[in-house]
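Continuing the batch. This is chain 6 of the set; chains 1 through 5 are on the previous pages. Same settings as before, nothing changed between runs. Recording input and output for traceability.
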Amino acid sequence: MIVFAAITPHPPILIPSIGRDNVKFLAKTANAYGQLAEDIYASSPDTIVVISPHGTMLQNSFIINVVPAFSIDFEEFGDLLTKFTISGDIGFSHHLKEGLETKIPVALTSHERLDHGIGVPLYFLTENLDRKKTKLIPISFSLLDLETHFSFGRKLQGELLNDTRRVAVIASGDLSHRLTKNSPAGFNPKAKDFDAQLTSFIFEGKTEKILKMDRGLIEAAGECGLRSIVILLGILNSMRVRAQVLSYEAPFGVGYLTVNYAINN
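Output for chain 6:
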């Protein structure tokens, strides 16, 4: 069963040992993560599924990462001390692969060290969970169209709802990377429109409009989280959920959106 769902940004600078004084510029996101941490703790998940845009990617196939234990660190960002491990849910991962592969292309991979798209959300959201008991399933999206990503989410929903495990699902991703002249991907005046439209559609539950967003606008935004979000929307499709936009801010020229989904099982 699905007991928790959220959209989370993944700026490494949010981690105090990395961002240091700059963390104060992400106060809204930090507070939103604090609320999510309380909610996921209350939901008592057995397994956490995280959809990340920064893992291994194939053009025509989705990927499930399967290893006995995953390691998370932030050495590439200059933090040599912050690190932890979390167990992989091998049995459930293979079950998902078997249930999905006849309907949609899914491949397995084995990478113990995880990317920051997974590491940042888990740093905050598993802080109060037992990382020795809580298990993880990392998923990478493909380069297929949005409709296929939504369909993949729909297929995942069937597998997750029909299982007795308590599952938390997290769509990790940032919005536009082109909001200001100091943005990491340069500036595009359409970037702000993309973030505004996507945030509004998520809050209003207008999934169809997200799937039909202008492709030129999406490309102009230089986003990394749209496909993660669309998979999550497929997973939550037809469920009794309500999107709560906890925060949005862009102090460094990248849109950071945090959304909690209230689930009525």
